[in-house]
């Protein structure tokens, strides 16, 4: 899917792989925003990313994602990339 703000793609992940997959996406460096959705498609967590975001700033995000991962077996990551 393409819109004026960039490209959006979705990834299905299991709860146990949620944090690892989000970290992998963040390290790619061209991500604008990541939205974690449950099986019903409802957004349960949104991570806005900017050029200046570094690992120490994201520590609370990793903790929150770890807690969310325990809630369900599968999630969908909606990833908005910069154009």
Strand order of the largest sheet: 1-2-5-3-4
Q: Roughly what fraction of the amino acids lie in strands?
A: 35-45%
Helix and strand pattern: EEHEEHE
Q: How many beta-strand runs?
A: 5
Distance between the termini: 12 Å
Question: In CATH terms, what is the fold-level topology?
Answer: Dna Ligase, domain 1
Globally, the shape reads globular
| CATH class designation | Alpha Beta
Mean pLDDT: 80
Task: Count helical runs.
Answer: 2
Write a compact overview of the structure shown.
Helices cover 31% and strands 40% of the residues. It is α+β, with helices and mostly antiparallel strands and 83 residues long. It has a single domain (2-82), classed as 2-Layer Sandwich (Dna Ligase, domain 1), CATH 3.30.1490.
Tell me what the structure shows:
The protein is built from 2 helices and 5 strands. The mean pLDDT is 80. It has a single domain, classed as Dna Ligase, domain 1. With 83 residues, the protein is α+β, with helices and mostly antiparallel strands. Helix content is 31%, strand content 40%. The chain starts with a strand and ends with a strand.
Structural descriptors:
83 residues; alpha+beta; 5-stranded antiparallel sheet; 2 helices
Which helices and strands occur, and which strands form pairs?
Layout lengths: L1 E2 L2 E9 L3 H11 L2 E7 L5 E6 L6 H15 L4 E9 L1
Antiparallel strand pairs: 1-2, 2-5, 3-4, 3-5
């Amino acid at each position: 899917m393409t819109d004026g703000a960039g490209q959006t793609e979705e990834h299905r992940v299991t709860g146990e792989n949620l944090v690892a997959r989000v970290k992998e996406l963040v390290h790619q460096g061209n991500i604008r925003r990541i939205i974690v959705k449950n099986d019903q498609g409802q957004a349960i967590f949104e991570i806005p990313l900017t050029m200046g975001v570094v690992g120490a700033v994201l520590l609370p995000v990793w903790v929150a994602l770890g807690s969310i991962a325990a809630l369900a077996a599968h999630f969908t990551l909606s990833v908005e990339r910069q154009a």
